[in-house]
Design goal:
By secondary structure, this protein is mainly alpha-helical. It has one domain. About 65% of the residues lie in helices and about 0% in strands. It has 5 helices and no strands. Helix 1 runs antiparallel to helix 4. The chain is globular and about 45 Å long.
Length: about 140
């Protein structure tokens, strides 16, 4: 459990740094569209999770329900995808080496968190392996 809290702490520390070290909304039209898509995806994922017991850590609540509709029919971790899609334009438009380092740490952290969460979900839900076979982790039809 301590590892899970560390992963969440790193995630929020990276996000906090990215949010405070430059403008949140970008001026570039393509970046703004990407941010809109990321925010929409995140809200859609939150809406889809309303029937379950979402947890900020990778641990699975005993009352959790496996959600496989909404964005979850395409990707298993749409909230992580949404976070990366939303923050990447912030990095690109207001690039600094520190922001790049922070974004890379965020990506690595989310991949580690995702890996841990996948193991816990597979142990909790007997049909999770079947769900893994028909969906992708972060990028629809790719990864």
């Amino acid at each position: 459990m301590a590892v899970s809290y560390l992963l969440v702490f790193i995630q929020f520390a990276c996000l906090g740094y990215l949010l405070q070290s430059g403008p949140i909304l970008v001026d570039d039209p393509f970046g703004a569209i990407a941010q809109f898509v990321g925010i929409f995806l995140g809200l859609w994922a939150i809406y889809a999770m309303r029937r379950s017991r979402p947890n900020i850590t990778p641990e699975v609540s005993s009352k959790a329900v496996l959600i496989t509709d909404g964005p979850y029919q395409y990707i298993r971790h749409p909230m992580y995808t949404a976070l990366l899609i939303t923050t990447l334009p912030m990095l690109i438009e207001h690039y600094t080496p520190q922001r790049l380092f922070t974004w890379v740490v965020l990506v690595v952290d989310l991949l580690l968190k995702l890996h841990r969460e996948e193991k816990l979900l597979a142990a909790h839900f007997p049909d999770y392996a079947e769900y893994q076979a028909i969906s992708r982790k972060l990028i629809p039809f790719v990864y």
